[in-house]
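One example given next:
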Amino acid sequence: SAERFVYEPSPLTGPVKAGELVLVTLSVRPEQDALRYVVVEEPTPAGLVVVENDDSFRIAGVRSRFGDDYYGWNYWFDGREIRDRQVEFFFSYLSGPITFTYVLRAETPGRFTALPTLAWMMYEPEVRGVGTVQTLQVRE
């Protein structure tokens, strides 16, 4: 089997350096029994970019979204689209709370705001949830 580097996550307690990776953890807790066709829209803070090719990342304590091998079923979400200002996750069915992660890379020094995460049902957009605002500082 191929060797893989395993990243050990640590709490974000202050500024990050340009080039460092940031593990983002999102939790969605539906108030209803089960939801169909849910979109989670995560705005990307300026100065950071989503690491698109993250399938080779292994993070201690976090199960790979592809299972134990690259061709395993994607158990977190059914689809993901990375855009200039946000990353979107699509779920065809949520039967309860779910927590998932993605990776950002700090690129530009400055103090940046991560706008709130939005979650809603695609065919019932009035059923929605809003996260909180976060700030992040990137240094040289």
